[in-house]
């Protein structure tokens, strides 16, 4: 909200001020930093089965508990760290997700050892920049997220199914997916399709 004027946002924001701030300030803006991309993917994994606001409220707790999502430090976590994290009320205490995050840090380091940069990899399926959803409907997954999910799994990542990955690609700006009724939509969609799509009902 700004100046008492109600702004239409994507439907998933609802009435949450926290989600509104996240939507307006972060969501869908292209991220090209490898560490930040990896952090975002890990947080999306923790969100599975829950609401994003649940993760967002604990984001700083996650950053503290997972050493700022430094993959080198997280990859060195052992069983004692797993138990420490399971006792940490500042995060979502799900053992499989905690263990997957540690394993995913190790998978990321293996990529680095092979000379594969995570940011370059993450954007490899969208070499021409963000892909704009021109359907007028926001999908739970897409062919792009299915391909990315398969590529991540082939590299040893877990909790990276196509639905989780689609949410991550939306959040990191790889897929531009604002609702047609959202006030960010007009500026996010190329001019050649903005007018036609803006008249369609929200998906």
Widest sheet: strand ordering: 1-2
Structural class: mainly alpha
Give the termini distance in whole angstroms.
23 Å
Overall body shape: globular
Taking pLDDT < 50 over at least 5 consecutive residues as the criterion, the unreliable ranges are 1-5, 189-203
Number of strand segments: 2
What does the largest sheet look like?
2 strands, parallel
Hey, roughly how much beta strand do the residues contain? under 5%
**H/E topology pattern:** HHHHHHHHEHHEHH
User: Residue share in helices?
Assistant: 40-55%
Radius of gyration: 18 Å
Number of helices: 12
User: What is the mean pLDDT?
Assistant: 88
Please characterize this protein's 3D structure.
It is a single chain. By secondary structure, the chain is an all-alpha fold. The chain is built from 12 helices and 2 strands, in the order ααααααααβααβαα. It has helices spanning 17-25, 34-47, 52-57, 59-65, 71-75, 79-86, 95-113, 118-122, 143-154, 162-171, 185-188, 191-198; strands spanning 131-132, 175-176. A two-stranded parallel ribbon has the order 1-2. Helix 2 (34-47) packs antiparallel against helix 7, helix 2 (34-47) packs across helix 10 and helix 9 (143-154) packs across helix 10. It is globular.
Observed structural traits:
single chain; disordered C terminus; 203 residues; globular; mainly alpha; 12 helices
Secondary structure topology:
Blueprint: H1 17-25, H2 34-47, H3 52-57, H4 59-65, H5 71-75, H6 79-86, H7 95-113, H8 118-122, E1 131-132, H9 143-154, H10 162-171, E2 175-176, H11 185-188, H12 191-198
Helix pairs in contact: 2-7, 2-10, 9-10
